[in-house]
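Lab notebook, bench 4. The sequencing result for the construct came back, and we need a structural model before the next group meeting so we can plan mutations. Quick request posted to the team channel:

Model the 3D structure of this chain.
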Amino acid sequence: MEHRRTANNGTPKPTSIVCAGLNAHSQLQAGTTTDIRKFAPLKDFRPSQEGADVLFAGWSITVFSSGNKIWTQGFQPISSTLSGNAAQEDIHVPSVIGDHDGLLALLSTSGDLYTVFSSSDAQPSTLQLITTESSPSIALVALSGTGRTALTFKQAPNGNLCHIAVFNTLDRFLAWYRDPSDSDCYPDKHHMLPGRPAQLLANTASFILLLENGEVYSWGDPRHQSLGRAINGEGGWMSAAISEDGALYLWGAAAAPGHDRSIRCLREAGAGEVALVELLASAHDEPLDVIDVAIGDAHVAVATTNGRLFVVGDNKDGQLGLDSTEDFIEDWTEVRSPSSVQRVVCGPRSTYVFVHA
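Done. Here's the predicted structure in token form:
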């Protein structure tokens, strides 16, 4: 789970997207199921033409968008053109949610909610608009690995109170969204915070909310260090944030379940502590400013302001793109190619890098 300050607005469109990692379902490269251990371009994909984007990277699929068109590569075939208000907009989706099996739902910029609909096994699935006149106005939505769903409501332009609703299951949220008057589907939790929401993200068992004023809130399972604060008996996954001045912070468990080795900066920071990550071009240089960060199950990718790419963590499937057979890299390592990096996206065991010539 990552926490980014960038919204990809006003930045040059990438000329290509390269990828590395698990490819068992051809989700990275069509026509093969061999893992990609060195960054390679997505074939037959030209993002500079219509502002195409990677919306979601899962275990077995990659979800792309261009304009109001959505399609996938991998295990779950989807091809859809969004209707409703989203049909008239260039999609910059604030919330895409999925799980191990693939894409589940999508919330567009205009607030329309879509779920995956399959008409037959012979045809690709489509995204079906489920927003009705009675549906609540939602700004952001996120799904944790435990199935819990959190959302924020849209605010008036002068509003300064953020309402957060949490549901124990995705199905319960969808039932409430279709009919918010049904008392059997009311939210399981309701929180209020002063401020306006900017980004809502989830990892295995917790949520992180960024407000427009820069404050960050976390909640969820206290057994996981991803809350970013000291709680007894923790152990779990990772989270990250970028400050306005380009500093990178990382927190969570140094070693993910099933891994004997751990990321050094988290191990040295200690349980419940937030690590300030310093990426150096050389031993004598000042730390580089960070513009983007993404986190997979147990690996991290970072883009810096001068277009450099740094990675760390699990590499069993080649997701660090280093063309190395080493299973785990515990120290930050620069990837020499590609260069001119703009943005990074991580799936559980994959990495996508947006580059600009």
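Residues 1-10, 226-233 have pLDDT under 50 and may be disordered.
Will bring this to the meeting.
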